[in-house]
């Protein structure tokens, strides 16, 4: 059975207030799987951006690409505010799609608490 695809802009993070990556896709679940499994060599793999912390779905692909470009031009503080408006704890939203929780690295709880 095929998953329904829909345009989405998303933000992946390495952890709470960590490195963030803005992307666009027509298959959010598939793209999250790719990020989590290191299917892409590059920025998200190098910086461990495996946590889905924000996404916006709907509209068409052209609109999603335009929104992605807009967000990529935003200051980091604006992106953090966008994430925290809907996800103040930076919870991994991928778990809502059935993904297993990410394993915590030693000291991650202390870093996230501070």
TrEMBL record:
A Pfam cross-reference name: GIY-YIG
Family (UniProt): Belongs to the UPF0213 family.
UniProt xrefs under CDD domains: GIY-YIG_unchar_3
Domain GIY-YIG as annotated: residue spans: 5-81
Name of the featured protein: GIY-YIG nuclease family protein
PROSITE patterns named among the record's database cross-references: GIY_YIG
Cleavable signal peptide: none
């Amino acid at each position: 059975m095929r998953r329904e695809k829909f345009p989405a802009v998303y933000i992946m993070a390495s952890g709470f207030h960590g490195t963030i990556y803005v992307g666009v896709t027509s298959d959010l679940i598939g793209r999250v799987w790719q990020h989590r499994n290191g299917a892409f060599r590059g920025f998200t793999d190098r910086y461990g951006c495996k946590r889905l912390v924000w996404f916006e779905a709907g509209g068409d692909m052209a609109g999603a690409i335009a929104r992605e470009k807009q967000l990529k031009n935003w200051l980091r503080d604006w992106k953090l505010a966008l994430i925290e408006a809907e996800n103040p704890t930076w919870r991994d939203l991928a778990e809502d799609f059935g993904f297993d929780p990410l394993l915590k690295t030693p000291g991650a709880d202390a870093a996230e608490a501070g």
